[in-house]
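Checklist before submission:
- one chain only
- standard amino acids only
- sequence pasted in full

Submission:
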Amino acid sequence: MSHRYPIRMNRRLFLSSVAMLTITAPAVSFARTISGSLPWEPMASDPPARVIPGAWQFFTPQEAALVEAIVDRLVPHDDLSIGGKEAGCAVYIDRQLVGAFGTSSRLYTQGPFKPALPTRGYQGEANPAQRYRAGLAAMDAFLKQRDGRTFVELKPEEQDAFLTEMEAGKVDLPNSVKAAGFFGLLLQNTMEGFFADPVYGGNKDMASWRMLGFPGARYDYRDHVAKHNQPYPLPPVSITGRPEWLGKGA
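Returned file contents:
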């Protein structure tokens, strides 16, 4: 019996070696296939497509004029920055409404639809595109009946007063449109358009970033990490870079 023990051990070693070779062989082969090259391509992460201002894709001309008037009151032009209309906030909202945001395609939107705490956000059945279409129509219908004029035809101070009433929920808009809820949606999307990366259609020329001193999508801050309470000296950078990097001028 003693003379079989070494043979049995050798067979085990042999089988173990074969198993290890089988496991490691594909890895070695794969390593050779990418030797001298990277297993990925630059810009293969599918970056967002740059929004090019142009024809409205969701808003009608009348709706677009109304939204531009609204965003210009929410973000008025002053000596610090351009206004919401010039910054492209309406363009940003228009493009968002024809995408996944407008249709709520990435959210669960089935019932039941019941009243909820304000901290839980909007809980209704209508998606943002439907809310905008109904809300904008309700605003003008209400003002035509009350004042004989649309929002665009009001004076700036009158526009501010009406938006203040909407925010406080003191306006009973037709077709069951909740004034405070719709104002909140308008304000949220206007702020997004004003402060988001210009690639999405708003924040023209990175105006809001320049106003705040925000550096944008720069990749390296090591030279400035320890410089506390000092303005960042370099201009902001978009996801797509800076215009002069792309040969489009300053």
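Reviewer check: The chain has nine helices and no strands.
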